[in-house]
């Protein structure tokens, strides 16, 4: 079965099957123990670091809302800033209709293929 472990670069492309083992070597190329903590630190470095989502949520909750200090008359009834940025409440219909299809059908005459007869024999 395919190993589902998310290996870091540069070994993230090949597929590995079965059980995988990590082997750590020191500067003399001797095998050494690799603690879980050391592997996790090395793993995070290879991936370029990870963001702690729990910390991010806490930071977001503690962040001041930039509209809190804006006067109510400068905001819409929904609480958004009145800055002349307008979003239409009616979505644009981008689906094609029959007139669009007819327009394309009219141009298709230019693309008609002519029939040719081919022969392997020289005439």
Tell me about this structure:
By secondary structure, the protein is mainly alpha-helical. It has helices spanning 36-46, 53-62, 98-107; strands at 24-25, 31-32. Strands 1-2 form a two-stranded antiparallel sheet. It is flat. The protein starts with 23 loop residues before the first strand and ends in a 16-residue tail after the last helix. Residues 98-123 have a biased composition (Acidic residues). Residues 83-123 are annotated as: Disordered.
Q: Order the strands across the largest sheet as they lie in space.
A: 1-2
Number of helical elements: 3
Q: What structural category do the secondary elements indicate?
A: mainly alpha
Strand proportion: under 5%
- The coarse silhouette is flat
Mean of residue pLDDT values: 77
Helix content: 25-40%
């Amino acid at each position: 079965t395919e190993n589902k472990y998310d290996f870091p670069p540069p070994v993230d492309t090949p597929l590995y099957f079965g059980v995988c083992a990590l082997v750590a070597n020191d500067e003399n190329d001797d095998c050494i123990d690799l603690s879980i903590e050391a592997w996790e630190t090395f793993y995070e470095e290879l991936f370029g670091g990870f963001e702690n989502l729990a910390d991010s949520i806490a930071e977001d909750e503690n962040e001041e809302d930039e509209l809190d200090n804006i006067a109510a008359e400068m905001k819409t009834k929904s609480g958004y800033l009145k800055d002349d940025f307008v979003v239409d409440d009616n979505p644009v219909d981008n689906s094609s209709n029959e007139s669009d299809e007819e327009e394309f059908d009219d141009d298709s005459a230019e693309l008609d293929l002519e029939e040719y007869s081919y022969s392997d024999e020289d005439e």
